[in-house]
UniProtKB/TrEMBL annotation, chain A:
Protein name: Peptide/nickel transport system ATP-binding protein
Primary location class: membrane
Domain ABC transporter residue range list: 6-262
Signal peptide: none
Domain of life according to the entry: Bacteria
Gene Ontology annotations of biological process type: peptide transport; transmembrane transport
Localization per Swiss-Prot or TrEMBL: Cell inner membrane
Recorded topology in the membrane: Peripheral membrane protein
GO molecular function: ATP binding; ATP hydrolysis activity
Organism lineage: Bacteria, Pseudomonadati, Pseudomonadota, Alphaproteobacteria, Rhodobacterales
Pfam families found in the cross-reference section: ABC_tran (PF00005), oligo_HPY (PF08352)
PROSITE patterns hit by this protein: ABC_TRANSPORTER_1 (PS00211), ABC_TRANSPORTER_2 (PS50893)
Species name: Limimaricola pyoseonensis
TrEMBL record, chain B:
Major location category of this protein: membrane
Signal peptide range in chain numbering: 1-34
Name under which the protein is recorded: Oligopeptide/dipeptide transporter, C-terminal region
GO cellular component, one term: plasma membrane
Domain ABC transporter: 305-561
Subcellular location: Cell inner membrane; Cell membrane
GO molecular function, one term: ATP hydrolysis activity
Keyword Nucleotide-binding: yes
Lineage: Bacteria, Pseudomonadati, Pseudomonadota, Alphaproteobacteria, Rhodobacterales
Gene3D superfamilies, alphabetized: MetI-like, P-loop containing nucleotide triphosphate hydrolases
Organism listed in the record: Limimaricola pyoseonensis
Bilayer-crossing regions: 79-107, 119-150, 170-191, 203-222, 242-264
CDD domains linked: ABC_NikE_OppD_transporters (cd03257), TM_PBP2 (cd06261)
Recorded family membership: Belongs to the ABC transporter superfamily.
């Protein structure tokens, strides 16, 4: 097995609210927001790891820390085994040439006052990778690579003249033009229309085939994760609950939360059986005031006294497949419904 | 030139205030520039014809030294413009640089700089200038510097607030992630995008600078070697009885210049903010029509909602955009219809048209809506009966809506219970407070909100609870038909699934009819019996749910379905529309420009509504060929046949 190219090691990110004097005196200070509690992930060269979670699960925070846009409160980021968490200056710039980011909102991704060509040339200029005379050619080549033809027309267009799908292709081109080793993609297709979405996903897969780039693909949609990724990590309230090869995780999940997510996804295929819905007792997760024991127990249909008291261990379920649940083995073998019935 | 600048200039030139102020400014600037070559008398040239009133020899008369006032006014314009441009430029330069730094870095940098802005704002302009003049003597450059020194915090504060929002923009984040240093990001991405309102404000600054300089000159503190309108007015006021024209002429010039600068500022601001134009305005009174005389009485078998050839247009500036362009469908009582489509296809406009809750710039231009067999809209006009439009009588009591964003739809300053009580008592005047509370409790139980949350304010509820409260509010009057516009889009997977489940339960229990507007094919597939696919303002295909997913007959529906990744089905490469395509062609099929199977026929002739049996209709020339093959077939053979 090859050495991981990028590792997030026990990341913790706490946003303490800057409370005013009065509320501090009155003891009414808001509790700090725990955006990431314990995030450990490893990316191997050339693979796609999808991080799946609801809003507030910490998936975006993990991505922002991986690109060092934010520094973690605790924990480390390792690139090719070296600790890069505290990088600044030239070393940080060199890191950014290797680890790039694609953002969620394509409509805001490009400076409206620059042409597409100018925006695409910017990373090349910043890193001094291509001489000034060669910029145009490099830009056109990249536009071809993201299937925006005729490239000349797109290079001279302003963002306001383009559609969402085209803008996201350009954002992808900008991230890839300096040939990074790793790309962190934060919900790159969630704001696009369905018919355009698949084109962008196919493009990203094609580029990976051609260049061997590594993706950390952040999404809330398990079906998209399955389509894009080799491995999937499911996050909830700032921690990874389950991680495993995409197909294994979807066909034999060991964590009740993963099972619920799979069941909750609407399915339109003729082959799909009409799912029966179960009512969850709790409500959406809150980033303040974490529950004791297992962080999912307030909403878990399987929750037992032990779940309220003891944080679950990380249970290995097979090769590269692990889940943090006291009943992971049972859930994986018998499914959530059977495991719940057996536990009661 | 930058497209935004061009657009702004064009939009400015469209308003009469913009044209007038621009024209006046151009005349003044041209006169000032050309002053030396206009062949005017020397403005300093003294003559013996003192106090001449305006006439042929001296257009605006002469002053107490016999100097030509017209020449002096023209030369005075030079000083006014130099001061205006110089002071405004300097002020914007200092202000936007410091404002950008303060806003961008935040923290203690912002705290420190903001205090500096405040201190400079407190310095009285005249006091500072008196000090400068006392120290260095009166001169034009010093006046400019002094004015800039007291006005730059205006620009700084504007720029700071601009930057506070700009720095979270994705392209700023992206530039940083690409490795750009901070100074680069500020100069290239932040300032150019934040400068527009500061430039607009600059025209106001220019007016202020001119007035300040005139005031200084009036006090005799201006540059004595130059002709200034302020010093002219000062001299004139001593001879006001004898020669009023001495002060009137420069006074009017001052007024015109400052007024046109301010007017220009207003028009540019108006031109750059399209929202000021399109969103404003009172709701249009829509002319109603009387119900048709031959209207049959409601029958038991009548569909609860029947829409025929409905058309809705938006007015955007001078253009009119048809968002709903001839939509027809019919919903049986107790039935459910899903309307799917992508952004801009008109699905939400259709939803709002059904309840007549369109925005002010939208208008129904045709079509009929019947509720329970009775017309509520005829030829695009609301039907009035007994002085009240029929839709008003139905809205919320029989037809309710669930909005996408519960946070915006619920009033943030009153509790959930209070809003529901208000709704109940408005529609059921006899109801007591206790009865209302009891009814709310029932609805809360039904939808799964604990009764204890009744007295919560909307912001105290989680997203899922808030959406449930929104649903409770729409059900409180026991409607028969609910129109839900993307009711779960903002919610997480698990909550979305629960809410869709609850809507399905309620339908069964209350025999509700449902129209679900959504972009989510999966959600619609599970919640509705019939699905309508909208594209470019029209329903291009409508069919029973299983049928449309198994044998879609329109290439657009086929794309939508095969573009969705499956979670549990087989893993296959997804289809998509091409990234680049030509614009939609006039005439012909509106999907032809993006359609993988389009032929010459598609580009020239609008497709007919092809009846495929079993309530399946598709607007495609090749609908029958497409319907004949299931969606998972590799290549659409219809294309090959059509091309052959």
């Amino acid at each position: 097995m090859s050495q991981p190219i990028l590792q997030l090691d026990s990341l913790r990110m706490v946003y303490a609210d800057d409370t005013g004097l009065v509320s501090r005196l009155l003891g009414r200070a808001d509790p700090p927001v725990i955006a990431a509690d314990d995030v450990t992930l490893a990316l191997r060269p050339g693979e796609t790891l999808a991080v799946v979670g609801e809003s507030g699960s910490g998936k975006t925070t993990a991505g922002r820390i991986a690109t060092l846009q934010e520094r973690p409160t605790a924990g480390r980021v390792l690139y090719e085994g070296r600790d890069v968490t505290g990088l600044t200056g030239a070393a940080l710039k060199a890191y950014r040439a290797k680890v790039q980011m694609i953002f969620q909102n394509p409509y805001d991704a490009l400076n409206p006052r620059l042409t597409v060509g100018q925006s695409l040339a910017e990373p090349l200029t910043l890193h001094g990778l291509v001489p000034r005379a060669g910029l145009r050619a490099a830009v056109l080549e990249m536009l071809e690579a993201v299937e925006l033809r005729p490239a000349e027309t797109f290079a001279d267009a302003f963002p306001s003249e383009l559609s969402g799908g085209q803008l996201q292709r350009i954002a992808i081109a900008r991230a890839l033009i300096i040939k990074p080793r790793v790309v962190i993609a934060d919900e790159p297709v969630s704001m696009l229309d369905v018919s355009i979405r698949s084109g962008v996903m196919n493009l990203m897969r094609g580029i990976q085939r051609d260049t061997g780039v590594t993706y950390l693909y952040i999404t809330h949609d398990l079906a998209v994760a399955r389509y894009m990724a080799d491995r999937i990590a499911v996050m909830y309230l700032g921690a990874v609950l389950e991680e495993g090869p995409a197909e294994t995780l979807i066909s034999a999940a060991g964590h009740p939360y993963t099972r619920l997510l799979i069941r909750a996804a609407p399915e339109h295929r003729a082959t799909a059986v009409k799912r029966d819905r179960i009512r969850l007792p709790g409500d959406a997760a809150s980033q303040t005031g974490q529950p004791t024991g297992c962080r999912f127990h307030p909403r878990c249909p399987l929750a037992q006294p032990v779940c309220r008291e003891t944080a679950p261990p990380r249970v290995a379920l097979g090769e590269k497949h692990a889940a943090s649940c006291h009943f992971a083995t049972e859930v994986r073998q018998n499914g959530l419904a059977a495991a719940t019935a057996a536990a009661v | 030139m930058n497209p935004t600048v061009i657009k702004t200039i064009r939009a400015t030139a469209r308003s009469w205030t913009g044209v007038l102020s621009l024209a006046l400014l151009l005349v003044i600037a041209a006169a000032a520039l050309a002053a030396p070559v206009l062949g005017l008398p020397d403005p300093a040239d003294m003559a013996f014809d003192l106090y001449q009133p305006p006439g042929a020899a001296h257009w605006l008369g002469t002053d107490n030294f016999g100097r030509d006032i017209f020449a002096r006014v023209v030369w005075g314009a030079r000083v006014a413009l130099i001061v205006a441009i110089g002071a405004a430029l300097l002020s914007i330069l200092i202000g936007s640089a410091l404002g950008a730094v303060a806003g961008y870095f935040g923290g203690w940098v912002d705290g420190l700089l903001s205090r500096v802005f405040d201190i400079f704002l407190l310095i009285p302009t005249f006091f500072l200038i008196l000090l400068i003049v006392a120290l260095f003597g009166a001169s034009l450059p010093l006046t400019i510097v002094a004015i800039a020194l007291t006005t730059w915090p205006r620009s700084a504060r504007l720029m700071r607030s601009q930057v506070l929002t700009l720095k979270s923009r994705v392209y700023v984040q992206a530039a940083l992630a690409a490795g750009a240093p901070h100074w680069w990001v500020i100069l290239r991405h932040v300032i150019p995008n934040g400068i527009a309102p500061i430039v607009t404000d600059g025209t106001i600054l220019m007016g202020m600078a001119i007035l300040t300089e005139a005031g200084l000159s009036f006090l005799g503190l201006g540059d004595q070697n130059m002709v200034s309108w302020g010093s002219m007015i000062f001299e004139g006021q001593r001879h006001l009885r004898l020669a009023p024209w001495m002060s009137i002429a420069p006074g009017v010039a001052l007024l015109v210049l400052v007024a046109s600068l301010n007017l220009l500022g207003d028009s540019v601001n108006f031109a750059m903010n399209p929202q000021l134009r399109t969103r404003g305005g009172a709701p249009k009174r829509r002319r109603g029509v009387a119900p048709p005389a031959d209207e049959p009485a409601a029958t038991a078998g009548a569909p609860i909602l029947q829409v025929t050839d409905l058309r809705l247009e938006y007015a955007a500036g001078d253009r009119r955009i048809a968002a709903v362009d001839g939509v027809s469908f019919s919903l049986p009582r107790g039935g459910s219809l899903g309307i799917v489509g992508e952004s801009g296809c008109g699905k939400s406009s259709l939803g709002s048209a059904l309840l007549q809750t369109m925005p002010n710039n939208a208008e129904l231009t045709g079509g009929t809506i019947r509720y329970d067999g009775r017309a509520i809209v005829l030829d695009g006009k609301p039907v009035i009966e007994g002085g009240r439009s029929r839709i008003e009588a139905l809205r919320w009591t029989r037809m309710a809506t669930i909005f996408q964003s519960a946070m915006n739809a619920l009033n943030p300053v009153t509790t959930v219970r209070r809003q529901m009580v208000d709704t109940l008592r408005l529609h059921r005047p006899g109801m007591t407070r206790d009865e209302a509370t009891a009814r709310i409790g029932e609805v809360f139980d039904m939808i799964g909100i604990p009764r204890s949350r009744m007295n919560a304010y909307p912001h105290q509820l989680s997203g899922g609870m808030r959406q449930r409260a929104m649903i409770a509010l729409s059900l409180i009057l026991e409607p028969e038909l609910v129109i839900a516009d993307e009711p779960t889009t903002a919610l997480d997977m698990l909550i979305q699934d629960q809410i869709l489940g609850e809507i399905a339960d309620l339908r069964e229990r209350l025999n509700l009819s449902l129209i679900l507007v959504s972009h989510d094919m999966g959600a619609v597939a599970e919640s509705c019996e019939t699905v309508a696919v909208m594209y470019a303002g029209r329903i291009v295909e409508i069919a029973p749910t299983r049928r449309i997913f198994d044998r879609p007959a329109h290439p657009y529906s086929r794309t939508l379905i095969s573009a969705l990744p499956s979670l549990t089905g087989p893993l296959e490469t997804l289809d998509s529309l091409p990234a680049t395509g030509s614009a939609a062609a006039e005439g012909g099929c509106r999907f032809a420009h993006a359609c993988p199977a389009a032929t010459a026929l598609c580009r020239s002739t609008p497709p007919p509504a092809v009846q495929l049996g079993g309530n399946h209709v598709a607007e495609c020339h090749y609908a029958e060929e497409f319907a004949a093959e299931p969606v998972d077939a590799a290549e659409p053979t219809a294309t090959e046949e059509a091309c052959a």
